[in-house]
């Protein structure tokens, strides 16, 4: 499991990828991420910021379109926040908390 150093001003979260998404992230399913506690606009770190951060800093594959579309997680990818559907938590606006577990599950299948 990849571990980023924890510093003050960071939100430590666990991010997991399944259903083939792990292939986009160095074929590694689980990552501990030390996310800056504020985004580029000084707002508290939320899921939308996490998705951008993952694409810019953790995604090893260049095919970002397999993970994001129109600035958010693409349709067909379920996102769970501490085992609850992110739609119940405010989707991208959910403010991340220390030790949150964010799970991305692809339901997309080639054929």
Descriptors for this entry?
8 strands, two-stranded antiparallel sheet, 111 residues, 32% strand, 10% helix
Structural description of this entry:
The protein has one helix and eight strands. It has 111 residues and is mainly beta. The protein has one helix at 47-57, and strands at 2-3, 10-18, 30-36, 68-69, 72-73, 77-81, 84-85, 101-106. It is globular and about 40 Å long. A hairpin with a 2-residue loop joins strand 6 (77-81) and strand 7. The longest helix is centred in the middle third of the chain and has 11 residues, at 47-57. Strands 1-3-2-8-6-7 form a six-stranded mixed beta sheet, with no helix packed on it. The chain has a two-stranded antiparallel ribbon with strand order 4-5. The termini are far apart. The model is unreliable at 1-6 (pLDDT under 50).
SSE layout and pairing:
Elements (H helix, E strand, L loop, with lengths): L1 E2 L6 E9 L11 E7 L10 H11 L10 E2 L2 E2 L3 E5 L2 E2 L15 E6 L5
Parallel strand pairs: 1-3, 2-8
Antiparallel strand pairs: 2-3, 4-5, 6-7, 6-8
Quick structural summary:
The chain is mainly β. The chain has one helix at 47-57; strands at 2-3, 10-18, 30-36, 68-69, 72-73, 77-81, 84-85, 101-106.
Helix count, DSSP H or I runs of 4 or more residues: 1
Instruction: Describe the oligomeric state of these chains in a short phrase.
Output: single chain
**Alpha-beta classification:** mainly beta
Uncertain regions spanning at least 5 consecutive residues: 1-6
